[in-house]
Specification:
164 residues; mainly alpha; 5 helices; elongated; disordered N terminus
């Protein structure tokens, strides 16, 4: 479910950037006729790959990156995306537990609620720490202006995710 939402978001973001005049959008893979003569849509992995490539192209163009910078950016993204996903999963689990505790008819578990609130704050702190680490790493190969533009592109993607 989460992977589908992210894929849809990335696709929508790419289409949005294209609609804003920043590119031609993801290219559609050709459909191929079947024996019955109807078309078979390209497989999901192919579409996802096309969207990733389109976003990489838009990012490279918008930031004015060299091939070397783009390679480093993609490696950094992978490294931090995995860690970020883990933190988001942890925070979701804690928030669900907190919601469950708050919906309980008895209020005798105040200690449990307090511990869950502490865990929410801890995961938020982890997210901020991770963003700081990522920015330090990006500073090693991006200019401050490129980092600021990249930050803006990331914000656009997050807004599209929230809209979806």
């Amino acid at each position: 479910m989460r992977a589908r939402l992210i894929t849809l978001c990335v696709f929508a973001c790419s289409a949005s950037l294209a609609a804003q005049g920043r590119g031609a959008g993801p290219q559609q893979a050709p459909t191929r006729p079947t024996a019955a003569g109807d078309s078979v849509r390209p497989n999901r992995a192919n579409l996802e790959q096309q969207v990733r490539e389109r976003i990489a192209k838009v990012t490279k163009e918008q930031l004015g990156l060299t091939d070397q910078q783009m390679t480093k950016l993609q490696a950094t993204n992978k490294k931090y995306d995995d860690q970020r996903r883990l933190i988001v999963d942890q925070e979701r689990d804690v928030r669900m537990s907190l919601r469950d505790e708050m919906l309980r008819p008895d209020s005798a578990r105040q200690g449990q609620v307090a511990a869950l609130l502490d865990r929410v704050i801890k995961t938020q702190r982890q997210r901020v720490d991770l963003a700081e680490q990522e920015q330090k790493e990006l500073a090693g190969f991006l200019t401050p202006l490129q980092r600021a533009r990249y930050f803006g592109l990331e914000q656009q993607i997050r807004q599209r995710v929230n809209q979806l």
